[in-house]
Amino acid sequence: MDLDNVLDLARTTLWTAIILVAPPLLAGLLVGLLVSLFQTVVAIQEQTLALVPKMLAVALTILLLLPWTLNRLVEFAESLFLNLDSWGPGA
Questions:
Q1: Residue 4: which H helix or E strand, with range?
Q2: For 79, which of 12, 23, 37, 50 is 20 to 30 Å away at the CA?
Q3: What does each C-alpha distance from 2 to 7, 67, 72 come to in angstroms?
Q4: What pLDDT tens digit does each residue of the chain (91 aa) get?
Q5: What is the dihedral angle through the alpha carbons of 36, 40, 43, 44, rounded to the nearest 10 degrees?
Q6: What's the angle, vertex CA 67, arms to CA 62 and CA 70, rounded to 5?
Q7: What's the predicted TM-score (pTM) here?
Q8: DSSP character string of 42-78
């Protein structure tokens, strides 16, 4: 396995990871921002108030995008297995 293959595999792995975690993180960010804005408007100083809505938003996003996420992971695993022979010691 030469350096180009290693770099390509690392880039593909990191890009796949970023694509898979971005929607739940963005949902949590958006809900946290909205709850913080609401807290500022009504002058509520409770720090733990934003935790439950963010957790629910992240969990709901994960559940809704689960088929898409699994499809992306299966495609990534298939590409790994299809290219496995080109990464061997004899390649």
A1: helix 3-42
A2: 23
A3: 9, 34, 26
A4: 788 888 999 999 999 999 999 999 999 999 999 998 998 898 887 777 889 999 999 999 999 999 999 999 999 999 999 988 777 676 5
A5: 0
A6: 90
A7: 0.80
A8: HT---GGGGHHHHHHHHHHHHHHTHHHHHHHHHHHHH
Show the tokens assigned to 31: 């809900």
DSSP 90: T
Judge contact between 54 and 28, C-beta under 8 A: yes
Alpha-carbon distance of 74 to 70, in angstroms, equals 6
